[in-house]
Fold Probable S-adenosylmethionine-dependent methyltransferase At5g38100.
Amino acid sequence: MSNSETDAPPMVGGVGTCSYYKNSYLQRRSANVVKEKIDEEIAKKLDFHNLPIASNTFRLADLGCSVGPNTFFHVQDLLEAIKQKYEMQFHTSQIPEFQVFFNDQPMNDFNTLFNNLPQERQYFAAGVTGSFYDRLFPESFLHFVHCSISLHWLSKLPEQLLDKNSPAWNRGRIHYTNAPNEVVNAYASQFAKDMENFLNARSKELVSGGMIVIISQGIPNGMLYSELQNGVMFECMSLSLMDMVKEGVVSEAQVDSFNLPFYAASPDEMTEIVERNGLFNIERMELNDPAAWLKRRINIPEWVVHVRAAMEESFSKHFGGEVLDELFDRLTKKLSKFSDELELKYREKTLLLVVLKRQ
Amino acid sequence: MSNSETDAPPMVGGVGTCSYYKNSYLQRRSANVVKEKIDEEIAKKLDFHNLPIASNTFRLADLGCSVGPNTFFHVQDLLEAIKQKYEMQFHTSQIPEFQVFFNDQPMNDFNTLFNNLPQERQYFAAGVTGSFYDRLFPESFLHFVHCSISLHWLSKLPEQLLDKNSPAWNRGRIHYTNAPNEVVNAYASQFAKDMENFLNARSKELVSGGMIVIISQGIPNGMLYSELQNGVMFECMSLSLMDMVKEGVVSEAQVDSFNLPFYAASPDEMTEIVERNGLFNIERMELNDPAAWLKRRINIPEWVVHVRAAMEESFSKHFGGEVLDELFDRLTKKLSKFSDELELKYREKTLLLVVLKRQ
């Protein structure tokens, strides 16, 4: 097993003003939207009568957990639903012991995660470092896998994006928003490969009857990313960087060679990948409204702070930390210019919920 | 389960010049002295025919692992001995999967640990935060526990040491070296309580037939700590601090209220505790020579750097970080004055090896 690094950025560590720890409540609200649906799936589909539980211990993993605190809330919610189902099936309050594995990449700030573990947790906690596109656990070890707001990060960028001779060369853009089909397809095919690796690894690690819940950025079937509110954001990032090229702050070659490894799949795409893999039953696959984005006109500065806490490491690695403030300032201004357009963009069914069960 | 903090200091984090990562090779050499003996115990006593191994996974925990790299070497050595024994018993190279849990306190620098995990490791790794005097794992989960150079750290200091009305008030000293019997007894009784908690927790976590290997600072039966080379070090720490009191750098009250939670048990003491607990068989209990200290005249500056990497957090928490340089400079000078006396002090059988087997 290697310390596999992926191209996905670690979230900003620590608990300071700019940290992901302090700036991830929008992600939390999004995930909360689907809480009831997940509870429902657990109540209906998790079947303790047919689940091998060795030594009376139920094991759950949160993959791509970041630094907290969202992961702690999700785990707590999941464990409550799981306990309820157990009590319902066995008419007993003598529940199993729970062991929870918090996973993220080696560059994740596990010190922050460990220092903020809930004091009164009713489970044994452990941290596991590594890419969830590889094996992380022994065979038949886990009963439940949760993967929230992280599977849209690709393990790596398609090489063609940097190849000047390829039709998928992604010149002057940092994402597939508004890009030629070849670029979109390169992203899509990397996503499919990653997802296949994810499913293969989990198929070994999960016991038969074990469940996977994925909450991820998604997109309605047949829609283009440029039609989404998020697409405007990626477009404005590209435009801000190209402005900085004009002013000599960064070079054109730097922008041409930079791409964000972020891909949002449609339900049809995801269904095809899971069916082709053939090791899991699809219990639920649907797009949801990410509530936080819907209720009011978007607060651009708040949005940018969240985007920065999740993505700045990517930019900083490529362009250097010294351009970050300028870049995100420009992004805020650029988005403000497009604020009316932003409100017209699609932002409803963009949260993909996938519930799978190991055959 | 709570984020139990103990009084034992975390080792200095990171990988810088003063880090424990860079300044723990003396500890490693000490532990290496007993490597062959541990291999021998595994070959003789670990019995796979009577060890319940669910899902073909063998689970090992290194408790008090610190930041590395020593823990990685120990784990590698242990796994090799364990694999050999397995192959010997089953005449097959189809060995189980291995899962290794690295444990230390919440204040330990797990980021450094995770970032330095061996690239080509043949095991699934996980980090577990918490005091090993409490439960860390579910029931019947582990097959092997290793605890190297860390059980001599008490979970907390006996309260009497700070009580002016108690005969165990440890005025003007920071350890039980050269202290009245009441002080020594207070330390000893805290150690016995801690060890009892350690054994009770492990008795739940280990499967029947599972093994514990403890390598710890020890002392021959009936010897006083002041007779040891280490005793001179603690004494020189007290003297250096009292010099700093005279010069007004720290206050006398600060020194009186500070004690190091460090206790070295004798084989007789340890035997009594394990037998009273009654849940483990003693497979081996012996004192060894810590090789690094024996072969040559002690290199005082090198020794102090190691002591500082392991202990500075205790001093810094109590006296403030700004006095550390002065304190350890004074300690080096003070020890140099006593360098001839140091060479005469006892330093042979001070490494206690304990091998236990869960009944």
In short: The first strand of chain B starts at residue 57 and ends at 63.
